[in-house]
Amino acid sequence: MITPWFKEEHEIFRKTVRKFMETEFAPHADDWEEKKDFPNWVFKRAGEMGFIGLTYPEEVGGSGCDTFYKAVFCEELPRSESGSVNMALLVQSDMASPPINILGTQEQKEEYLVPMIKGDKIGALGITEPNAGSDVAAMRTTARRDGDYYRINGTKLFITNGARADVITLAAKTDPDQGYHGISLFLVDTDLPGFSVSRKLEKMGMHASDTTELRFDEVRVHKSKLLGRENQGFYEVMINFQGERLVAALTAAAGASYILDKTITYIKEREVFGRPLSKFQITRHKVVDMICEIEAVRQYLYYCCWLFDQNRNPAREVSIAKVMATEMSVKVIHQCLQLHGGYGYMKEFKIERAYRDARLGTIGGGATEVLKEVIGRMEGL
Ligand SMILES: Cc1cc2nc3c(=O)[nH]c(=O)nc-3n(C[C@H](O)[C@H](O)[C@H](O)COP(=O)(O)OP(=O)(O)OC[C@H]3O[C@@H](n4cnc5c(N)ncnc54)[C@H](O)[C@@H]3O)c2cc1C
Predict the structure, then answer these.
(1) Average pLDDT of the segment spanning 329-355
(2) Which runs of consecutive H residues, i.e. helices, occur in the chain?
């Protein structure tokens, strides 16, 4: 449907993404989930389709599209049936690579951003540590200057794509006494001596994706790999957070909507006590409540996309969007599972997978409580 937000070309793109997800990824999703792995060709195919570089400038191989194309892409992602692959691709396009686009030198863009957009290089974002998640400034990984090099030492935890990445967009302390003012960003090639994947972590959901602990043991990184300005990394990462949180919110709302659609089909077919589940008023009202919540969040997300395209820095609105969308999706998918009864608990209906996968939304990339603090501060509370 054409709306003030979406033009005909967005809807044509929607059809392309939908077909791609349904035919190229979805047929493999169960297998990938079972094997707890997926092949790296997904990056290459996504790159060939232009999905990774959607909003990047044409000079670096992107398509220069507006944020509503990103919204369309996120809305069609659930049809891959693989939250794991969706997360891996979004880490590539909206977490690991944006700092290179915003801060990178021409050489850095050519060496890293261009191949990442093509899907030839895989990226990961290394910020979280065993003792520093929400509190980014508490990180202990250090990068000490040594002539023309930095020596990096430390551990990063929960890093998506960490086991397969060619490059890590890494945050480390260049001035450990300066808290927020002592963090810098680096591009660290994973074939450098001293880098290792120390653990691949077992987790509740997103089983096919690799979530890792990474070790940096005297890793020598040339000064040309410093991304942006020394000691300004925290502020530069904060800018990146808005885009990351917007796609997290868009995919959370899309996931809820996708599962609700499946649930509506199910309750029309499933008969209990002689009539379809959908013919019970309590079921209908529950479903309509969910439709109302999804619609309200979705329209707010479109407003955030519009703010992005106006080159505003919608930190307040994106924080609100991420809280609303991720909390809503956890609640909606929980109720959808309930409406499926025992079948919802079974793997074959894929509701339980969506339920487990969605749970990450309120934790990763800024937990709900942390974002409420951000919003509260902006409201002068
Ligand atoms: C599957 C997965 C993939 C991830 N991928 C990446 C990645 O690719 N790169 C990366 O750098 N990180 C990644 N993360 C890390 C993620 O961003 C962090 O888990 C998140 O920021 C929370 O940090 P933490 O786990 O250390 O929790 P903590 O900071 O220890 O917080 C624990 C809980 O305390 C509460 N809390 C925290 N602060 C406050 C506060 N100020 N007020 C009130 N309550 C508070 C919240 O409920 C929070 O969930 C990933 C995590 C997961 C689970």
Answers:
(1) 97
(2) 8-20, 26-35, 41-48, 67-76, 83-91, 98-103, 106-108, 114-118, 233-269, 281-309, 315-339, 341-345, 351-358, 368-378
Cα 363 to ligand 1 centre (Å)? 5
Q: Say what the pLDDT of residue 2 is.
A: 67
Shortest-distance Cα residue to atom 19 of ligand 1: 364
Ligand 1 centroid to residue 132 C-alpha, Å: 8
**Triad 314, 6, 251: Cα angle to 5°:** 55
Q: ∠ CA 155-161-167 to the nearest 5 degrees? A: 70
Contacts by 132-135 with C-beta closer than 8 Å and gap 24+?
A: 133/157, 133/158, 134/366, 134/367, 134/369, 134/370
Residue found under tokens 């001035």: 175
Instruction: Encode pLDDT of 19-39 as tens digits.
Output: 999 999 999 999 999 999 999
Q: What pLDDT digit, counting tens, does each position of 65-115 carry? A: 999 999 999 999 999 999 999 999 999 999 999 999 999 999 999 999 999
- Alpha-carbon distance of 215 to 74, in angstroms, equals 32
Catalytic residue among 244, 293, 317, 352: 244
Residue 158 CB less than 6 A away from ligand 1:
yes
Whose Cα sits closest to atom 35 in ligand 1? Answer: 369
Average pLDDT over residues 1-21: 93
Beta carbon of 131 within 6 Å of any ligand 1 atom: no
Annotation marks residue 244 as catalytic: yes
- Euclidean distance between CA atoms 282 and 261, whole angstroms: 18
Confidence grade of residue 235 (pLDDT, cut at 50, 70, 90): confident
Mutation choice for ligand 1 from 139, 158, 323, CB with most ligand atoms inside 8 A: 158
What is the three-class DSSP state of 145? strand
Quick count: other Cβ atoms within 10 Å of Cβ 268? 12
**What does the alpha-carbon distance between residue 203 and residue 158 come to, in Å, rounded to a whole number?**
10
Fill in the amino acid letter for 4: P
In sequence order, what are the residues at sequence separation of 6 or more whose Cβ sits closer than 8 angstroms to the Cβ of residue 356? Answer: 204, 205, 206
The Cα–Cα gap between 219 and 186 comes to 12
Ligand 1 pocket, residue 206 CB under 6 Å: yes
